[in-house]
Write a structure and sequence with these properties.
By secondary structure, the protein is of the alpha/beta class. It is 32% helix and 17% strand. It has 8 helices and 10 strands. The strands form 2 sheets. A 7-stranded parallel beta sheet has the order 1-10-9-6-2-3-5, with helices on both faces. α7 links the parallel β9 and β10. α1 crosses α2. The longest helix is centred in the N-terminal third of the chain and has 18 residues. The radius of gyration is 17 Å and the shape is globular. Bound molecules: 2-phosphoglycolic acid (PGA). The site of 2-phosphoglycolic acid (PGA) has 6 residues, from loops.
């Protein structure tokens, strides 16, 4: 794991946006794995700015989102379909046919999930996967005790996740109980992974992800097994790390 502790959220988002747009510059038909939640919003804003100012085109890019609430209307303002249109897809020149977000109401869930996995495979696999981390250590909606080898499927959302996401729906009762999510095994096949976290609220789970044991109780800890992960965090999210000074020293001396 490369642990990059940057000054603040702005620097983290700029770093992630640069990594993604640099990839698109060098590989115009790149396959991007995308995330929702509060964490990547500013990264998307910066990708839009770079698209406008530096004419980086998304026309041949393919995208696969991690997850979507199950049973919600895709036009619901808090669906992840709506989120992605609002923050990224409507603001760049992406071909809507190249955009994939799990269906919220598939006729047959198992068939849909197998189809989604196959679409990722047909696209050549994900070049770079952007992730946030849930307060309980989830990645995508792979809640604690998810199999570390899991594939795209339907999951029951924990009380913690539904509470954390209440702000989007008003009350916890309105937050869907289920979601369709890429599996941990699916995420681990991405060629590169960026995981971001900001603020003291994430400090303890970030410590568990980086410095704790690999365990299904903290799904993000499995990223210790991936050969190309960048953990991009602000000072607050890094505040509980035991070896913080070591990560900074490695960063300062990284080869170019
Ligand atoms: P957040 O969510 O970006 O809203 O903190 C992260 C996640 O649940 O994966």
């Amino acid at each position: 794991m490369d642990v990059f502790i940057l000054k603040n959220e702005d620097e983290c988002s700029e770093y992630a946006a640069r990594m993604i747009t640099d990839l698109v510059k060098s590989k115009p038909n790149a396959v991007l794995g995308l995330a929702t939640g509060r964490t990547p919003i500013d990264t998307y804003a910066r990708m839009v700015r770079i698209h406008n100012e530096e004419h980086v085109s998304f026309k041949d890019v393919k995208t696969f989102n991690l997850d979507e609430y199950y049973g919600i209307d895709e036009s619901h303002p808090s669906s992840y379909h709506s989120f992605m249109q609002k923050h990224l897809f409507s603001k760049v020149d992406i071909n809507q046919e190249n955009v994939h977000v799990p269906s919220s109401k598939p006729q047959n869930v198992a068939e849909f999930c197998a189809w989604y996995e196959n679409e990722i495979k047909k696209a050549g696999g994900i070049d770079i996967q952007l992730l946030g981390i849930g307060g309980n250590g989830h990645i995508g909606f792979n809640e604690p005790t998810s199999s570390l080898a899991s594939r795209t499927r339907i999951k029951v959302l924990t009380e913690k996740t539904r509470t954390d996401n209440t702000f989007d729906f008003g009350t916890i009762e309105k937050v869907p109980m289920h979601a369709i999510t890429m599996g941990i095994g699916t995420i681990m096949e991405s060629r590169q992974i960026i995981i971001m976290a900001f603020g003291t609220k994430k400090a303890d789970i970030v410590r568990q992800m980086i410095e704790g044991p690999v365990t299904a109780l903290v799904p993000a800890s499995v990223l210790q097994m991936h050969p190309s992960v960048k953990v991009i965090i602000d000072e607050d999210a890094a505040s509980a790390l035991e070896r913080k000074e070591y990560y900074k020293w490695v960063f300062d001396n990284r080869p170019n």
